[in-house]
Amino acid sequence: MADSTAGTLKQISSVFKLRIAAAITLCAIAGMAVTPGVSLPSWKIAVLAVAVFLSSAGASAFNQHFERDLDAHMPRTRNRPFVTGAFRAGWIWFAGLGLNFAIAVFVAAWVLNTHAALYIFLGAFVYGVIYTIWLKRRSVWNIVVGGLAGSFAVLAGAAAITPDLAPAPVILALVLFLWTPPHFWSLAIVLHKDYAAAGVPMLPVVIGDAATAWIILAHTVALVLLSLLPLAFGMGFIYLAGAVAGGFFFIWRSVELIRQPGPTAARSNFYASFVQLGLLLIAAITDGAINL
Predict the structure, then answer these.
(1) Residue 2 pLDDT > 70, yes or no?
(2) Cβ neighbours for 3, distance < 8 A, ≥ 6 positions apart
């Protein structure tokens, strides 16, 4: 019984991509933390976090539901619940995910404001519709546009403080926009053969691993330099430390990827992107909390 329950929970976590939802939620909290203004009461911060988490998780579940045919062709994804039949695809899932999404957006609009709700809506819409349905199977620009999903989470957090967006959260949103492509392109190098076999036009499949590595480095340098700009708009030493430490590590791994453009270095760079983003977001939240 315990094994069955654990297995079901693992499948739920896989379908809703709960770790990604938690990271997107952290982006929203960081956006709120770097926005000047009167801080929200704890219960409103909780509402923001839950709304972003639910919308992100729902968009991820829709992604797996829609892409179950594609997932069946790739070793990394062929054991996902919608592929194996552990979860039966159908209208009930669409209804449930639609209700989940509507509740998240409505509650955000009611408790916070319509601007925060709009950004939450746009984040899920970009990932679920623009990226999943429209671009992923058609365009090499798929993940570039898909990167807007994380950016809208940052803006949702900022708008929860004030609809008039300040420079720091806008810059942080742009950093997230630039972060997503090198993060996923690194993974795409690791899974080059899988994406090629499935016919997904990820950048390494289209132009090769070596050329992609140079583009990854360019994106990484740009996002790291941009991540330092909030220092001109009130961010302090803690933010600087997180941005520099994480940024240096990500650039270093990206340079190593150019030297050895293959799965091993790409996997290291993929993990380095998580380290960079985690340090940046935690530093932003901590710095914002101290400066209240």
Answers:
(1) no
(2) none
**What is the mean predicted confidence (pLDDT) over 130-158?**
93
Cβ atoms of 77 and 71 within 8 Å: the answer is yes
* Sequence-distant (≥ 6) Cβ neighbours of residue 56 within 8 angstroms: 17, 20, 21, 24, 25, 123, 124, 127, 149, 153
Single pTM value for the model: 0.94
> CA 78 → CA 63, 82, 169, distances in Å?
14, 9, 38
User: How far is CA 187 from each of CA 17, 85, 174, 195, 264, rounded to the nearest angstrom?
Assistant: 16, 26, 21, 10, 10
Q: Please tell me the distance from the alpha carbon of residue 253 to that of residue 41, in angstroms, as a whole number.
A: 40
Q: Count CB atoms within 10 A of the CB of residue 36.
A: 15
Name the CATH architecture for the domain at 18-161: Orthogonal Bundle (1.10)
Structural domain boundaries in the chain: 18-161, 166-292
Burial letters for 167-190: b for 16+ Cβ neighbours within 10 Å, e otherwise?
ebbbbbbbbbbbbbbbbbbbbbbb
How far apart are alpha carbons 188 and 37 in whole angstroms? Answer: 40
